[in-house]
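hi got a favour to ask and not much time before my train. below you get a single protein, a line of residues and a line of whole numbers that encode the local backbone shape. could you go over both lines and see whether the tokens make sense for that sequence. a few lines back from you is plenty, here it is:
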Amino acid sequence: MDPSTSPRGVALVVGAGDATGSAIGARFAREGYVACLTRRSADKLEPAVERIRKAGGQAFGYGSDARKEEDVVALIDQIEKERGAIEVMVFNIGANVPSSILEETGRKYMKIWEMAAFSAFLNAREVARRMVARGRGTILFTGATAGIRGSANFAAFAGAKHSLRALAQSMARELGPRGIHVAHIVVDGAIDTEFIRSNFPERYALKAQDGILNPEHIAENYWYLHTQPRDAWTFEMDLRPYMETW
């Protein structure tokens, strides 16, 4: 067998940052999937790819702009040809940028929407076309509290995440009967990342009390969703620390 492929297929993580996305890729790689990680800069994926390989898994990094249709089409084609069938696609791009509605610009609002909503549509559409032809697959969208309610100073982010949730709902209703499990995960709370560590030290201090989300524990829930039997599929899951107010 080609060492760059696996009989289990590919787990594609779009927006594989240093924490959650990378942890999800690693979790699926442990089960024998080829982890294909993407973000705009392929160089930034090298540490995550190397960690997965050192643990005995297969992983590859791809630099791609998820907002550009031609790039997305080419990337999905390349992965399917070189690495195998995409059995799981996780969309994990965030774009959480606060701003007062009085100061928000049209350019930034559109950019946030492109990152968190339009790129989700492009990637999910391309992957769904392959999955439907095979009659199986899992598509998971990383959502946020902003997709349920719009907080002050987050108009752009809330608009994009509401759009993402609506996309997931529509796809789940259309594709579920065709064998594709689509789910939306609301991640509500601070995550153990370098960003939180550096910019919100008081919040990061709650880690000692399990007060922020562990990326590996988030990843475990994504794996659980993928392995659910189709007679009991979850569409929406909330993940938050026990002390988070909501």
Q: What stands out?
A: The CA atoms of residues 100 and 153 lie 4 Å apart. The longest strand covers residues 137-144. The longest helix spans residues 106-134. Strands lie at 10-14, 34-39, 58-63, 86-91, 137-144, 180-187, 236-239.
